[in-house]
């Protein structure tokens, strides 16, 4: 009998919650042969990531995963062997009661947000006793072997390298997206929240010595882009040129295609959690727009990652990297910081690939979850 897994996803905002859980669910099915139900409380957000899905269906199978609507009026179901509440979402009370009453014991996990902070290793895997006698375990993704690891599908890096080694594949992919490559241009993808620093970066790119092609999937950053460009409201497919800078607005594309976009670009600006990890697997220099938290807690998270990521870079390259990421996340002088970063470009590029390979030597998150379950049994 295949072990059954229930993953609960409450979409708070944006696409990170559903992006992570949908990716994890597919991997547990494809690589570990598990029977997985993904409970989503916002079917429209799911359809955004999986356009072939139907948001009206209460249950549907997508890529081997049983995707279920997590409706407010919960109907009793038999709990699975393993239950994951993603990002501390609150499970239906009836379901929790059924978990406690189940003859065969249930492993209950809270999959936490990603952080490179030191305390993660100490908290990863800890149980917390609940009032009904069940234990809930905290499972922390992370960048070190003492954490739960990062989502990474088997063969991902092999596919990525083959794609990057094949210039024709890259051009075909971009053309299918409606992108005509600009000869000799540095290709940049931009996925971010609204960011007042954007205009200062674009100003420098427009006036810079090299052509730049900027691809912007539809999303929150478009309003900042619009502010800088002025003129009529931007639509998917629109292109604009300012000096050396060629801009194109792309549609929001399926996750697999988004990977290919990241693999195609020389530099990726990403955000949140999942796109941040995918950019690391792309092996190219990146810029992270971290999800803002109360009391600037996100800035500590940003620095914890930077402290780790910058290791191995020369002193000048470290300074340039940190300054750029700070400027992007704190409305700083990103134009000057970009110019500085370009001075260590070859080093930044090599470093991105080295970082990726090092992280890929750890167990991935799905594998770590399965192993945790087997150890717990
Ligand atoms: O959407 P996000 O900002 O999600 C955030 C973060 O997860 C954050 O930690 C969390 O607290 C908050 O949500 C609630 O960024 P993220 O995590 O990168 O998720 C975006 C998803 O969208 C990711 O799976 C990649 C995917 N994507 C596509 O599939 N196609 C696209 O064209 C683009 C731009 C993204």
UniProtKB/TrEMBL annotation:
Pfam family, one: EarP
UniProt keyword Chaperone present: no
Annotated keywords: Glycosyltransferase, Transferase
Catalytic activity, reaction form: dTDP-beta-L-rhamnose + L-arginyl-[protein] = N(omega)-(alpha-L-rhamnosyl)-L-arginyl-[protein] + dTDP + H(+)
UniProt xrefs under InterPro entries: EarP
Superkingdom of this protein's organism: Bacteria
Transmembrane segments: none
Gene Ontology MF annotations: protein-arginine rhamnosyltransferase activity
The keyword Transferase is assigned to this record: yes
Function: Protein-arginine rhamnosyltransferase that catalyzes the transfer of a single rhamnose to elongation factor P (EF-P) on 'Lys-32', a modification required for EF-P-dependent rescue of polyproline stalled ribosomes.
Similarity comment: Belongs to the glycosyltransferase 104 family.
Protein name (record): Protein-arginine rhamnosyltransferase
Native source species: Pseudomonas guineae
């Amino acid at each position: 009998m295949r072990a059954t897994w229930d993953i609960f996803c409450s979409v708070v905002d944006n696409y990170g919650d559903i992006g992570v859980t949908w990716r994890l669910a597919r991997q547990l099915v494809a690589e570990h042969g598990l029977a997985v139900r993904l409970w989503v409380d916002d079917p429209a957000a799911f359809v955004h990531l999986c356009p072939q899905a139907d948001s009206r269906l209460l249950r549907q199978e997508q890529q081997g995963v049983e995707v279920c609507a997590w409706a407010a009026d919960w109907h009793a179901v038999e709990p699975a062997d393993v239950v994951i509440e993603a990002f501390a979402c609150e499970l239906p009370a009836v379901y929790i009661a059924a978990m406690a009453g189940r003859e065969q014991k249930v492993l209950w996990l809270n999959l936490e947000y990603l952080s490179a902070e030191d305390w993660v290793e100490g908290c990863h895997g800890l149980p917390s006793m609940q009032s009904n006698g069940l234990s809930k375990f905290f499972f922390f993704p992370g960048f070190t072997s003492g954490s739960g690891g990062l989502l990474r599908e088997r063969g991902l890096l092999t596919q990525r390298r083959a794609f990057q080694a094949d210039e024709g594949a890259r051009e075909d992919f971009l053309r299918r997206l409606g992108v005509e490559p600009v000869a000799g241009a540095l290709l940049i993808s931009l996925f971010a929240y609204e960011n007042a620093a954007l205009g200062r970066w674009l100003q420098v790119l427009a006036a810079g010595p090299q052509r730049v092609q900027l691809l912007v999937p539809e999303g929150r950053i478009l309003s900042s882009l619009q502010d800088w460009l002025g003129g009529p409201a931007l639509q998917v497919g629109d292109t604009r040129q300012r000096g050396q800078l060629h801009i194109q607005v792309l549609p929001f594309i399926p996750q697999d295609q988004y990977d290919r976009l990241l693999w195609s670009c020389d530099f990726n600006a990403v955000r949140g959690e999942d796109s941040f990890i995918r950019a690391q697997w792309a092996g190219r220099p990146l810029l992270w727009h971290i999800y803002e938290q109360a009391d600037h807690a996100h800035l500590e998270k940003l620095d914890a990652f930077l402290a780790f990521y910058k290791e191995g870079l020369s002193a000048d390259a470290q300074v340039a990297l940190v300054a750029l990421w700070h400027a992007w996340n704190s409305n700083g002088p990103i134009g000057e910081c970009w110019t500085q970063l370009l001075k260590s470009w070859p080093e930044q590029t090599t470093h991105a690939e080295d970082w990726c390979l090092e992280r890929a030597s750890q167990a991935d998150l799905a594998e770590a979850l399965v192993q945790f379950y087997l150890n717990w049994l």
